[in-house]
Design brief:
By secondary structure, the chain is an alpha/beta fold. Helices cover 41% and strands 14% of the residues. The protein is built from eleven helices and nine strands. Strands 1, 2, 3, 4, 5, 6 and 7 form a seven-stranded mixed β-sheet that branches. The protein has a two-stranded antiparallel ribbon with strand order 8-9. The mean pLDDT is 88. The chain binds guanosine-5'-triphosphate and magnesium ion. Magnesium ion (MG) binds next to helix 5. Guanosine-5'-triphosphate binds next to helix 5.
């Protein structure tokens, strides 16, 4: 498995991020509720230097609710940091975020309008959250990682304003398990990891967590030898042709997409409980 990263890009991203951090009072750090640990950037704390930080566990609609509650409880126990669960597609999130951000700022003595910016790794929902807060169409939303480009301030209400441009955080790539989880959820550019192999890891995961949903959806036994399983999925979805046979690339993409969109259930991929039953060490079977 190859995971690539480009140091030049990272240095530029970091400089921009530092510039924008200096313009705000609070950072809204977006995490994917399905991978609250793997979608966090451990270097962000050093860059923030005591700045207020509101962590938003986004996409809770796609995560295991029990795991989300546990993460919300455990992540919020730090001074100057709070954590909120959120589905950015749900309009009620707007009020929750602003209330909490203003409350934190007031608690720490900030008197004027609270200036905020959204930050997070690719595809965690930054643009969707900016749109939710601004109520406008200024920040483009896209399904592919790395979509956001643009910059301005949006006055959301008298006591709260937001930078239109999110801070892009880079992934922590030193841990192979983190890389696999990020790729499974579509947070790493698709061509970085081989999708067929990713599906092998996904099958391993579903065997311990989501067998029922999968077997019902595809009417297939998850214990079939992997290649046979993929072949059968391809047949069911018409991704097989007489001339060229099974289109493994297409069936892999479909499988991953359905998992990412929650069609196979609501799952959390981080945490001791899942780590103890889903081994990402070594090559997939
Ligand atoms: N189900 C669900 N989907 C969400 C949620 N938030 C965002 N999405 C979807 O996740 C995908 C990525 O969202 P974006 O807002 O574009 O993410 P981003 O962080 O701006 O991504 P980049 O600009 O690529 O870094 C889109 O397809 C959104 O519709 C959520 O709370 N629940
Ligand atoms: Mg974006």
């Amino acid at each position: 498995m190859i995971i690539q990263w480009f140091p030049g890009h990272m240095a530029k991203t970091k400089k921009l991020l530092l510039e924008n951090i200096s313009k705000v009072d609070i950072i809204l750090e977006v995490l994917d509720a399905r991978i609250p640990l793997s979608s966090a950037n451990p270097l962000l704390g050093d860059l923030l230097e005591g700045k207020l930080r509101l962590r938003l566990l986004n996409k809770t609609d796609l995560a295991d609710p029990r795991a989300t509650s546990a993460f919300l409880r455990d992540l919020g126990q730090v001074p100057k940091q709070e954590t909120l669960g959120l589905c950015a597609k749900d309009l009620s999130g707007k009020k929750k975020i602003i209330l909490k951000a203003v409350e934190m700022a007031r608690f720490y003595g900030h008197k004027g309008r609270v200036r905020a910016m959204v930050a997070g790794i690719p595809n965690c929902g930054k643009s969707t959250i900016i749109n939710l807060l601004s109520g406008g169409k200024k920040a483009p939303v896209g399904a592919k990682p790395g979509f956001t480009k643009s910059l301005q301030r949006i006055k959301v209400q008298e006591d709260f304003e937001l930078l239109d441009t999110p801070g892009i955080l880079w992934h922590k790539f030193d841990d192979k398990k983190v890389g696999i989880k990020l790729a499974l959820l579509g947070s790493i550019k698709e061509d970085v990891l081989d999708r067929y192999t990713l599906c092998q890891y996904l099958v391993q995961f579903l065997k311990v967590k989501g067998r029922g949903n999968f077997e019902k959806r595809f009417s297939l036994d998850l214990d079939l030898p992997f290649q046979e399983l993929m072949e059968n999925m391809a047949k069911k979805r018409g991704m097989i042709t007489k001339g060229s046979g099974v289109d493994y690339e297409r069936v892999s993409s479909m499988f991953l997409r359905e998992f990412q969109e929650g069609k196979l259930g609501s799952f959390t991929l981080d945490g001791e409980e899942i780590d103890s039953v889903w081994s990402l060490d070594g090559e997939p079977l």
